[in-house]
Amino acid sequence: MTRGEAIKSKVHYKGKADDFLVFVDDVDEYRTWLKDKSVPLAHFISAFKVFVTHRQGAQGTYDTASKQSLSAEFDTDKTDDVIPIILEKGTLQTMEMPERQGPTNDTMDSMRTK
Length: 114
Fold this sequence. Notes:
Order of helices and strands: EEHEEHHE
Domain Ribosome maturation protein SDO1/SBDS N-terminal: 9-100
Number of helices: 3
Strand content: 15-25%
Low-confidence stretches: none
Oligomer: single chain
Number of domains: 1
Region (Disordered): 92-114
Structural class: alpha+beta
CATH class: Alpha Beta
InterPro entries: Ribosome_mat_SBDS_N_sf (IPR036786), SDO1/SBDS_N (IPR019783)
Number of strands: 5
Strand order of the largest sheet: 4-3-2-1-5
CATH architecture: 2-Layer Sandwich
Protein name: Ribosome maturation protein SDO1/SBDS N-terminal domain-containing protein
Pfam families: SBDS_N
CATH superfamily: Ribosome maturation protein SBDS, N-terminal domain
Largest sheet: 5 strands, antiparallel
């Protein structure tokens, strides 16, 4: 893998008032969990946080969902109760982050032989 290149997976849930995201580290474990709920969420979720995109779909600025927005959409403000709902009813999206470009270390320029 090239420097800075990474694959990110997220589950997108389109709610009535906002779009919600949960990031997934291990897609295979997530798919196993969909069939077998005995798999712990900690095996495939990167952070136990729910993000909102302010009606920007799966793109846009990601902010942590407020208790008010969770309560309005899911009738609970507990993240631990909301995450399984998003994982079950949302859609998995995978995006590839491009490698970083540019010089590797600008401070070493004076040490090059000319």
